[in-house]
Design goal:
The chain contains three helices and eight strands. By secondary structure, the protein is an alpha+beta fold. The chain has one domain.
Length: about 140
Amino acid sequence: MWTCPNCGRIFGKAKQPHSCHRVSLKTHFKNKEKAKELFDFFVKSVNEKVGKVKAISIPCCIHLFGRYDFVAILPKRDGLEIRFSLNRHLKNQRITQSVPMSLKNIKNCLKISSASEIDKEFIGWIRESYHLKDD
């Protein structure tokens, strides 16, 4: 693991290219009240049911960090787009995209438009992603 000395972000590889620029969380949620409510509920659920996380807000999205960056959140006017890595493709109707990032990591994406979608199944996938690098 490598921590950037300028911005404090944690990466799997030393000197990984990235932007150190950060933006406020408010920037992502301007005119997106529903997305902010879902984000708060999602982060609370992850903290309580998976493990403690820290939100890092960068220009493109919001990242959640446990021991490493494991979820990217893109606020939308009507909800959230959630991207998380697993070591497998998820074959589920909720998944909108499943893209290989490497031989071992698959980025799985889904959209959340209500708190009821942050359910046991979804939290299970997030837990799996949170612990992926423990293996």
